[in-house]
Amino acid sequence: MKDIQKAVPRVDARGKAEGTTAYLADLRMEGMLHGKFFRSTRARARIVSIRKPELPAGYYIIDKDDVPGENVVAMIENDWPAFVDREVNYLGEIISLVVGPDREEIVRIHDSIEVEYEELEPAFSLEEASALKGGPIHGKDNLFADYFISKGTPDEAFRKAARIIEDTCDTGLQEHIYIEPQGMLGWWEDDRVVLKGSLQCPYYVKHAAQEVLGCDDEGIRVIQSTTGGAFGGKEDYPEVIGAAIAVAVNRIKKPVRIVFDRTEDISFTCKRHPSRIRFRTAVDEKGGILGMDIDIHLSGGAYETYSDVVLQRTMFTATGVYDIPSSRVRGRAWATNMVPSGAFRGFGAPQALFGIETHMNHIARELKVDPLEYKSRYFLQKGAATVTNGRIYEDVLLPEMTRQIREMSNYKRKYDEYSKSFGRGIGVAFALHGCGFTGDGEQRLIKAVVRLVKREDEKIEILVSNVEMGQGLLTTYRKIVSKVLGVPLEMIIYENPDTARVPDSGPTAASRSIMVVGYLLQEAAKELKQRWDDESSFEVEKHFKMPPHTSWNQDTLQGDAYPSYGWGVVAVEVEVDPVTFEVETKGIWAVHDVGVPIDERVMEGQVTGGVIQALGYGSLEKLELKDGRFYQNTMTDYMIPTSLDFPKVEGSFVENPYPYGPFGAKGGGELVFDSAAPAFSAAVEQAIGKPISRIPVIPEDIMEVLS
Amino acid sequence: MKVRFSLNGKEISVDVDSLRRLLDVIREDLGLTAIKEGCGEGECGACSVLIDGKIVNSCLVPIAQVGGAQVLTPEGLKGTPRGKCIVDGFTEAGSVQCGFCTPGMLMAAEAILTKNPNPTEAEIREGLSGNLCRCTGYDMIVRGIEIAAEKGEGLW
User: Does A635 sit within 8 Å of B100, measured CB to CB?
Assistant: First the structure.
């Protein structure tokens, strides 16, 4: 084991465990007002009129007319209004913000606002969206994005096919359930708006606030408050809250705080994109794969958020860890009248991987071959062409990882035994996860900058915009810098980022914080070490450069979609009750390649947490829509795993250093989410002897499959 | 309504609406913010406190119910040998990620170990089942409590 891997106590553990670390809801400011959103009660409508009540002194209703800049939540496209203008496109869209000192009075004002709507016909499902029910919600065709990529000679593959095997795989909505609900506080200081919030991407929030305020770079400052979980859910929605509070503070010039209660959070924040993926695979006489045709549909909700890039990741992950000689992949992200879909750990990859893993299982079963053995024939190897005709530049350790997972889970004996009767099953699923932004996004869009400061007192400060949100960055960034410099961890300072102090090193997303930003910190620390004795205090700045081996064409979507990949395999064993169809998970095993873990315990924590969250996605977390409203809008109804739902995760890592990651590290925070859901459904398939193509797999669905 | 109770070993009296949630009295009126509001409906356990030694979601308790009771929050537990032992166990095991559920987990650990100083993994999981964590998948919290039980021999 390399020295860097050895676990150290997390620097944030004690304060958090004792409860002395302050989160957003724990902060107070003199004269602080509270804010509550007034939201649409229709999924699709035109606003005819709004009647506001008389306001007592000190209370305000903030809406579109208060926006000094553009009335948009700036993301990739500026299609999401900060406050509804005339048209409402999802149930819960923000019409106004009621602000004042007393929460009961705010509720009274909120409840007495009257809106007259002219109802329009909403489109909720993929079918309704593609049929343009009620007319297009977005553009002329309801498509946020529509891409096509091709590899090899797919036409020829299908011409030569002895048979074609087909599947349609569906994945559902998922809510993040970070235990700390969304929240933000804004105030007026030094002639500008300051926002402090539970968020992943300080510069995204700054950009969004700048757009609504129409101010320059200096007109807004964003500070991260200690963030109680995020998982992608605080990548996009804080821009929505931040834009609104910025407008309110700009008008009122007093502190305003919004903290969601759980029902508001579940009901109206972004969700994981539901998907439908159709697979057609051309197979020769001997059962060999000649080519695949893959048609991806993502449900994007009412506004685009990150649907375009989520879709790209789904497409570029569509053939999974397999070297498929020929393929066609088409992807479409649709607009619907639902809460906008957004970022969620995995960012489109889990949908693709559920699909391809499930489809490969079904091919193997049709051919009467052990799925694990069948999948192993098609593993990508170093030098292989990817689905975008790029290359795999690294050693692929899947054979060794497969050997380990077989041994740990006792796969062969269980697979053979469970094939004979109803009730038990074991499933294995593989994953790769492209690290960093897709394509040349790191160079074209993000352009990360990091700074390291040597101070007079010989302490070193890390200045980056990436945040601790539970994944351990406060500790791992310090470790990287301290190891390079050979100084104790206590000499390194790294505080929650404040855009007035830190450069834009990009968002805390896309498995990039360690691999991309951590590498820049390592490089900066090396330079700082060389120059250590030159001056008593100085600053080192590093800018992102694409690793020299990669090339990408964003117009054709051809080349290296990612510079490197994390790799994973998870095995799950289940027992299905023959009467109730309840599924009990009997064992979970996981092997991952994240290059070199910067801290083994931090990375183990990612594995156990990511795998259990994914098992929730695969087996429990049903979120259904009825007339634009979620049925399950409380934590009683939307069930996430408890300590009793799953047994311990037995995990291990293989070492595979990546030259452009710090100490050889690649990304790992999303990879660990990618395999467990398809492994679970594969295990259930074996237990019940019938194919399953939809997650979450709940007892009602098993009953339906069996009847 | 005036309610007298013991909070972290000190007798106190509050004069509030009898239906006011214990959570709000502790966090807002008394300014003790270690416990958190995660759901407000008794599902997540982030607001866990001990009332007369039993673990309770303080978001479900109207203040009138705690008259005469002993209420313990993380502020009262953290400085005791038991509290320190659990925090040490959590730190050593990697039980803390985002940390928002952790003060509630601290209270759950105290309740588990008070009931049984040498719990099995299954007993720990049972004892944690009212406290939700979205980061860790629970394994390392279970381990943290196991470590506390090992190292805290005689404390409970």
Answer: no
